[in-house]
Amino acid sequence: MNTITTDNKSLQQRLKALKEEKNAVILAHYYQEPDIQEVADFIGDSLELAKKAAQTSADIIVFAGVHFMAETAKILNPSKKVLLPDLNAGCSLAESCPPDAFQNIKSEYPDHVVVTYINCSAEIKAMSDLVCTSSNAEKIINSIPEEKEIIFAPDKNLGRYLIEKTGRNMLLWDGACIVHEAFSLDKLLELYKEHPSAMIIAHPESEDHILKTANYIGSTSGMLNFVKNSDHDTFIVATEAGILHQMQKDVPHKTLIPAPAKEDNTCACSECAFMKMNTLQKLYNCLEKETPEILLEESLMKKAHLPIQRMLEI
Ligand code: 13P
Ligand code: SF4
């Protein structure tokens, strides 16, 4: 985890001044480095960030998150300049679902309703009937008439969880989040033995055996609200470790323990290498030079906008 140094502080101040000068807004996901979160105008989960991007009156949106999030911002507010500090900040879920292969599945099941998790490319969104995020997925699935069959992509873990929650039999794409698939059940149970009064909270991108141990399952914002409103004092947190920064600020007197990953790692917590490609320096540089910018074809944006708009209406 990053510590805030004097250098970072002065960079943050320069960034704030630059932001005002250019009428820019910085939107950051909870998985970003603490020093990025500290300089953001808004921190949120993927649904909240999409809504903020759609509503902003700023001229420039600097997206401190990953590529699919910045693309979604551009689709929702195409007249704005959308910047992403590092264009390589991808996502294993988005990468698992190439448009050609997805088109083949769609053609095999032409009558299925296609629901995609927001963690996918604009091309995949453009092939979808509905988009969802981890905080509204259950509601979105329940909005589909019972007699309709469903393809759900790209997260098989979230998909399996939704099948259990909604009772709907969905055809699942075989994608997964490399961060949430890396939690170790054995290590988690060992940790729980050491902290038997802890509540285990997990993101639904986690594997089934991790979700089975959880007292609460929800999106990043859902987890934050749960910890804030719970009477418990200790939480084992099964999601990307960036969330601990905001969580600890919300509940300074509670104990938060990151769920352990299968691989040995020095910080004993799980970090998304894609999310962590963004740094404070890259954030500054990208606003100063107004690049890298997210640019999408008009026709692709129009097609991808429809299923996202349907989601926002539901
Ligand atoms: P949420 O922000 O919807 O909780 O999703 C987490 C995630 O993995 C984003 O990449
Ligand atoms: Fe993608 Fe997982 Fe990273 Fe989120 S945490 S951006 S789902 S790889």
From TrEMBL:
The keyword RNA-binding does not apply. Residues 1-28 form a coiled coil. Its EC number is 2.5.1.72. Binds 1 [4Fe-4S] cluster per subunit. Its main location: cytoplasm. Iminosuccinate binds at residues 29, 46, 117-119, 134, 203-205, 220. This is Quinolinate synthase. It comes from Salinimicrobium marinum. The keyword Kinase does not apply. It is found in: Cytoplasm. Pathway: Cofactor biosynthesis; NAD(+) biosynthesis; quinolinate from iminoaspartate: step 1/1. One of its GO terms (cellular component) is cytosol. [4Fe-4S] cluster binds at residues 91, 177, 272. Its cofactor is [4Fe-4S] cluster. It catalyses: iminosuccinate + dihydroxyacetone phosphate = quinolinate + phosphate + 2 H2O + H(+). SUPFAM superfamilies: NadA-like (SSF142754). It holds the Pfam family NadA. NCBIfam families: nadA (TIGR00550), PRK09375.1-2 (NF006878). Belongs to the quinolinate synthase family. Type 2 subfamily. GO terms for molecular function: 4 iron, 4 sulfur cluster binding; metal ion binding; quinolinate synthetase A activity. One of its GO terms (biological process) is 'de novo' NAD+ biosynthetic process from L-aspartate.
